[in-house]
Amino acid sequence: MMHMTFYWSKKVTLLIDDWRTDSWTSFLLTLLACVIASVFYQYLEDRRLRLKFISSRKPSPMSQIQTPLLQSKLTDDGTKLGVKFAGAILFGVNSAIGYLLMLAVMSFNGGVFVAIVVGLAIGYFVFRSEDDNVSVFLENPCACA
């Protein structure tokens, strides 16, 4: 039976029927996996935002004047397409991880909830709390956006 309220127990079924915990060791390893997945989510989000920020910067007019032969439209379009494709792949993977984290929280186990929130906070602190233009570029606390 699925829980519809938060409960605190070492017995939890997470994401698939075969991922069941029945001992403290398996429960703690599950919580560690939740923390690692949450930190990885924040890492990928940071990479995606940095890629988007770097690709949105316009070259300075001085660099175009100094190197006019290196400014090829074909190269720019190919590079932009590659950056867009890489951004789309990162967005897809990150969205999938975000939805899996959301489904893990929907197990309503208090330990899983706390582990995911702690992992997201650790990941934010390590990867996304720098004071640069990337954090100003786009800041969205939603785990699935």
Automatic annotation (TrEMBL):
Q: Carries keyword Transmembrane?
A: yes
State a GO cellular component annotated for this protein. Answer: plasma membrane
GO function terms (MF aspect): copper ion transmembrane transporter activity
Q: Which residues form a coiled coil?
A: none
Q: Which spans are transmembrane here? A: 24-44, 81-102, 108-127
Q: Which UniProt keywords apply?
A: Copper, Copper transport, Ion transport, Membrane, Transmembrane, Transmembrane helix, Transport
Tell me how this protein sits in the membrane: Multi-pass membrane protein
- Cellular localization per UniProt: Membrane
State the family it belongs to: Belongs to the copper transporter (Ctr) (TC 1.A.56) family. SLC31A subfamily.
Q: What is this protein called?
A: Copper transport protein
Highest classification ranks of the organism: Eukaryota, Viridiplantae, Streptophyta, Embryophyta, Tracheophyta
